[in-house]
Specification:
Strand 1 and strand 2 form a beta hairpin. Helix content is about 70%, strand content about 0%. By secondary structure, it is mainly α. Helix 3 runs antiparallel to helix 5. Strands 1-2 form a two-stranded antiparallel sheet. It is built from 8 helices and 2 strands, in the order αββααααααα. It has one domain: Arp2/3 complex 21 kDa subunit ARPC3 (Orthogonal Bundle), CATH 1.10.1760.
Length: about 190
């Protein structure tokens, strides 16, 4: 005789999907809050706040899913990137590596919090390490694509254009995400 399947796991899967979708939308809305920058520079957005919030509120696995859903929505043409843009052309542009780098950020976060625990200091350190991976991936992508289309550029120049101006704002976004996660994460587990 087979045993009935408990209702709780199905409910949790439904909640996981709902939370994943909610935070994918939050990342998109945060991308729309931007200060444009001239090409080829990266615009200032609240996107990293959305990614940090997804990871810190949902945890590594569900946060990663939110980031991937966000990127897939953008890849198929939904206007979820800064400037209400969408499509593969945005991801394959010189600054698209920073968007794809959000996956690296989420993977590093998931690995570190799974290995060292889910305390606030570990979460913050995991976000910083993940952001470093995102910056590294995005900068390498930027240098390769910029060099192939416009001419040689040094890594230091790319960092000066695309990373250094964002260090302080991203630190503030991390603090805001930590405050938010402390308020809501107990309700989202």
């Amino acid at each position: 005789m087979s045993q009935p399947v408990p209702a709780a796991p199905a409910r949790m899967r439904t909640l996981d999907l709902a939370y994943t979708a909610f935070f994918a939308v939050l990342i998109a809305v945060c991308a729309w809050v931007s200060i444009p920058a001239p090409k080829p520079l990266v615009p200032f957005t609240m996107q990293t706040f959305g990614v940090f919030a997804a990871l810190m509120c949902l945890g590594g696995r569900r946060g990663l899913y939110s980031v991937v859903v966000y990127l897939l929505l953008g890849a198929v043409g939904c206007p979820v990137f800064s400037g209400f843009r969408g499509g593969l052309s945005v991801l394959l542009d010189t600054t698209g590596g920073y968007l794809v780098g959000f996956v690296a950020l989420a993977l590093v976060y998931w690995f570190l919090t799974a290995r060292f625990g889910d305390t606030l200091p570990v979460q913050a350190a995991a976000c910083v390490a993940g952001l470093a991976a995102c910056y590294a991936f995005g900068t390498a992508w930027f240098v390769v694509l910029y060099t192939s289309s416009k001419g040689a550029i040094s890594v230091w120049t790319a960092l000066g254009w695309c990373v250094f101006p964002f260090l302080f704002p991203d630190a503030l976004k991390l603090c805001l995400a930590a405050l938010l996660s402390r308020r809501v994460s107990g309700m989202m587990k």
